[in-house]
Amino acid sequence: MTPEAHQHKGAPEPRRIVMRKSPHPAHRRWVPFLLIGVAVVLAMAAYGAYVWVPVWFHLPVSVTVNSRPYKVDSGTKIHTFLDDTFGLASYQGKLKVDTGQVLDPRGGKPAVITVDGHPLHSGERIRFGGNAIKLARGADVIHPTAQKSVAIAPKVSLQGGNGRLISLLRAGRPGTVLETIDTVTGKVLSSKEATSAIDTRLQAFTTTGIKARAVALTFDDGPNDGETQAIVATLKKENVKATFFELGINIKRYPALTRAVVSGGNLVGLHSWDHKDFTKLSTSQISGQLSDSQAAYKAATGQATQWFRLPYGASTLTIDGQLTSRNFRLAYWTVDPNDWRRPGVDKIVSRVVSGARPGAIILMHDGGGDRSQTVAALPKIIAALKKQGYTFVTVDELYRLSGGK
Ligand SMILES: [Zn+2]
Asked: Of 74, 106, 224, 235, which has the fewest beta carbons less than 10 angstroms from its beta carbon?
């Protein structure tokens, strides 16, 4: 009786289970699996040895490249084998443009290498069983081209040497060049002239060669409230004409002063919009300076002027060409008393009078600061020059006296 049977009287006696010993102990049942495992490991080792021992010992095998057989040591890097045998650089595609021009014979995609149906792995080696390799030329890289028409500025030439009045002799014309551009790199591949440029030719007039005992008084940087009226009044009183090179910004501010200068019989030329150094401006900025100052002059007087003096006298042949091609005549100067530095009335007078000779162009200022010394010097200058037999002309009159038309 089991202790359980005591507690449950009347319950049927549990069936006794008799454990009988198996004829094969449990550990013996794993033996076949163990043997299979060992066999597999041995087979793998054998296969590994079969594959890798020849590789380690570089035993030669046969491979095909594009179906042609080659003998090569197993274990050799496939890339090295191909490069040594075929020169992979020569299988590189070309870099071309769509016109057919070759930019770089080896600038295209690299050679396409396939090993046993897959793309060559980096560092992949020839295996002992050999490989079937396919080697093909890399694709060409083709850049599209575009044609671009580029304007070539006309050259500017000047005849007449160092003459201080300059006008246009013949208007030039820009030429055009047709450029073929690689649209990817922006490089100009070729260019050919489509239309040739015609040079701009300028004529300088040497005023100091004239026979007439005439000088041109010129006043820059105005109009300026106070000094301009005083100078115009002196000129009127002395029955003398002068030339005023005015700034557009000042004409706009004092249009009545510009009108007073003109109605006094004087000539007004332009001196830029706001006294910028034109050698530091772009072509279009210069164009704006010309248009704006001319517009201010037209608004004040109802007419256009043909005369221009560059701020600081700073220019280049190209700038002279641009200005004269806009129908301006250019007036530089021959005598500079530096009146704007206010050296004293007597200094201004003596410098002008000693510099005067037939055809002289005298630079003074009615604007740009306190010009009371210039105002005070003017009657003395006129008196001294009149005494020497000089007459006073505008730069336009001097231009005609010098042969200008
Ligand atoms: Zn100036």
From this structure: 106
Cα of 271 vs centre of ligand 1, distance in Å, is 7
CA of 244 to the centre of ligand 1 (A): 11
Strand partners, 233: none
CA of 331 to the centre of ligand 1 (A): 12
For the whole model, what pTM was predicted? 0.69
129 and 172 assigned to the same domain = no
- The answer to whether residue 13 scores a pLDDT higher than 90 is no
Question: Mind listing the pLDDT tens digit for each residue in 127-164?
Answer: 888 999 999 999 999 999 999 999 998 999 999 988 99
110: left (phi over 0), alpha (psi -120 to 50) or beta: beta
Residues forming the active site: 220, 365
Question: Residue 22's pLDDT is what?
Answer: 57
CATH number at residue 313: 3.20.20.370
Helix/strand/coil for 124: coil
Position 24 pLDDT exceeds 80 = no
Q: Residue 129 is part of which domain span? A: 62-143
